[in-house]
Amino acid sequence: MPGIKRSRTIRRFVVLLAAALLSAPVALAQTDGGEGPGTEVPHEYHDYGIGHAPARREGRSRPVRILTTPNGQPEWIVVGPQGDADAVRAAIESVRGRVLRVHALDALGQTSTVAILPTQYSRARIDEALSRMAPSSVLAVQHAYYFAQSASSPRIYAPDLIGDTAPGRCRVSSSVRIGMIDGPVNTDHPALRGVNVTYETLVPTGQVPSQNHGTAVATLLVGQDDTGALAGFAQGAQLYAVSVFSTRDENDMASVERITQAIDRLVSNGVRLINLSLAGPPNEALGVAIRAAASRGAILIAASGNERRPVVAWPAAAPEVIAVTAVDAARRRFRMANTGPELEFAAPGVDIYAASESGGGYVSGTSFATPIVTALAAREMAAGRGSVAAIRSALRSDVQPLGPGGRNTDFGYGLVHGGC
């Protein structure tokens, strides 16, 4: 069967090519038409990996996953100033590459260009062409990112642990707007029906994953529930949620392309506080968008990831982003949480009761600690603290130190404190 042999040869080539690409600084954006099947590269999280391999082997990270076109070609993304867009296209075409998609990130002053390159030798040539023709633009591969979520078992304790008098007691002004880049949200959930929610998706119909993760994060931020069980930590705030996750090969994932588009969408709509309960490898193109957003006053808060590795995931590890880990009711670090010097704050994230697609349940992961810190940042914004430096200082001023002296790689500065 010559066709089958040729297909297997191409796939082996793609895996080898993708592995070779990971050592270079990269960034990429993903198609509105959906991702290809993707390529796994068995690098550890230092390179920086999560993929769709059977994960949850304790002490082991998932392999990095690079998105591919339907015929197995790795996708690349270039993010750079809008004035470089024509030069970027010319540089790609000069090495016989092909541009697949271009997105104007107007609020960030950037453009993302997704392309395929013909051979493993094109990286050096495209780097040279870009440095000559568009020196401010950055090339990266199209990494996949995943929900920073793990397994769970029941217990409710979070409000008391951070010092709130009762669930839902600490409300914030309706003028505060929280952005959320996540998966689909069930805006008809009872805990969200009375909330001012703007929701949009960047994912085509037919590739939409479960609403469980996004709805849980949304309700932890702004949920309203008279019983207190699903009351958010920043009730009263407006929520602007953008869904970037699609389902591929029974896995939920988001590309750099969609994440950068979502950041741009939120910034363009005046949202200055953004929750990112997702995790993946370091990516220079994503870094460009993060820096551009931060330079425009955006405050980004992200999950450290759940790979039980001594490396904080991206985007949490980016210096402009506030990195969050999870602890349980006994103030112990979540056993699967990533660690590292970039960690800043810990929050309840083990056995947290949160909304599901159609009800509620218990969840664990740094995904669910992150919106608690974001909600506390919203309270600080309501009190007039509008910069990331002011938010960091306010959160640090009242932490409960955990672990060995001062800031450490397990808990950052310590457990955040709430209260009204």
Mind explaining what this structure looks like?
By secondary structure, the chain is α/β, with parallel strands linked by helices. The chain has 2 domains: 2-144, Alpha-Beta Plaits; 146-396, Peptidase S8/S53 domain (Rossmann fold, 3-Layer(aba) Sandwich), CATH 3.40.50. It contains 9 helices and 19 strands. The strands form 5 sheets. The chain has a 7-stranded parallel sheet, sandwiched between helices. A hairpin with a 2-residue loop joins strand 11 and strand 12 (251-255). Helix 5 packs parallel to helix 8 (366-382) and helix 6 (256-268) runs parallel beside helix 7. The relative contact order is 0.15. Mean pLDDT is 84; it is low at 1-37 and 40-60.
Give a topology summary:
Elements: H1 2-21, E1 39-41, E2 64-66, E3 76-81, H2 85-94, E4 98-105, E5 110-116, H3 122-133, E6 138-141, E7 144-147, H4 158-162, E8 177-182, E9 197-201, H5 212-222, E10 238-243, E11 246-248, E12 251-255, H6 256-268, E13 273-276, E14 278-279, H7 284-295, E15 299-303, E16 321-327, E17 343-348, E18 352-355, E19 360-363, H8 366-382, H9 388-396
Parallel strand pairs: 8-10, 8-13, 9-10, 13-15, 15-16, 16-17
Antiparallel strand pairs: 1-2, 3-5, 3-6, 4-5, 7-12, 7-14, 11-12, 18-19
Helix pairs in contact: 2-3, 5-8, 6-7, 8-9
